[in-house]
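[09:14] KT: can someone run the structure on this one? pasting the chain below
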Amino acid sequence: MFKKSITICVVAAALFSFCANAIDITTLNPVELLKVKSKLFKGDIEYNVTLPQGYNEDSNKDKKYFVIFDLHPRSQPFLSGLQDWLSHNGEWPWPETIVVTPTGYNAEFASLFKQLVSNPKNQAILDYFESDLLKKIDTKYRTNGFKIYNGFVSNGAFGLYILLNRPKLFNAYLISSPSLANDFGAITSDAAQRLTHLDDKLRFLYLSIGNHQYERGNLASFDKFSQTLKEISPKTLDWQVHHNNKNNYMSQPIVSLVNGIEALFSDMYTDLKPDSDISKKGPDSIIEYYSMLSTKKYGFNISAEGSLKTLASSLMKKEPKKAFSIFHKTIKLYPESAYAWSGLAKAYNDIGDIKKAVNYQLIAVEKSKSMMAWHQRKHKNILEEYRKKLNKNNN
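[09:31] RB: done, structure tokens below
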């Protein structure tokens, strides 16, 4: 009975908190209409561009965003919904992203797609993507240069066609249940030769299929392509292949999207373990690794802070001198990071030098003023904890 009462109180508190901070859902992800002209079509091709929450706010006017594209009009609700849900707590595990989808069926575009099917050497559709569509998106919106292609069945197969024939169009490909039977787009037959000619940029491929009756006709070609990946793919292509036989056919693109997004951005949000091959070589190796991710994969800076602090923390007991060297190196690299200063403060707290812990945590509190209120409170609470310890030691 006591536990039940506690549960009711917790739920009531949660509901009260939710109501007190209610959000108008229609304002979360505004949708704009984008019209794209091309010499390949008589009329404009129209797209829904779903913007992440806060895109139009003055505080975000200098911020740039990832882009995810899907050819199916009905993918817009689940792409924008999942993107909002997975990014609203500090952009983890999915950074805030612009979602681009067609508004509906377009006969002229469908005709161009059919030309590709009948003649894979006809790359007019890729020219349209490169010269018209993607360029228009980059011109009108604040994009950061990193683009993701998401596709299911024939649209998924088209994503693999892009990867093999025009890889620079997208940085990552999330492909579920691709229609590869009958050598669609010459994907299966061209894979070995095309994969060896990928550029030196890091690219990501998440590839999945199930065993539904609609997918079985593509399984042989899928497995053949997967085998080619194992034998031929260059080190610059980070790929995963999954046979997902647990979920319904129509659930495949949803499951693959979530798993693919988490895998794609794992190196951005998951710190290297202290016993990883990279961390074992020391802090310079960690810095070099994140520099490589920044230049070769993302095209903008990816922080090594978390992995440096993780390594330093692991050395505190046996090699404290080396640990503090890494903590101090981290604040030199990231002087505006509240958490870099807080990490150093904690290290001094752990060895009993509370005065230094307070001094460094004061800097962390100051640096946190530009962060969300939750982070500000966290750093202030840590400071108060250290101050209490210091006062206790002085009495």
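[09:33] KT: thanks! The chain has two domains: 28-269, 277-394.
[09:34] RB: yep, looked fine to me
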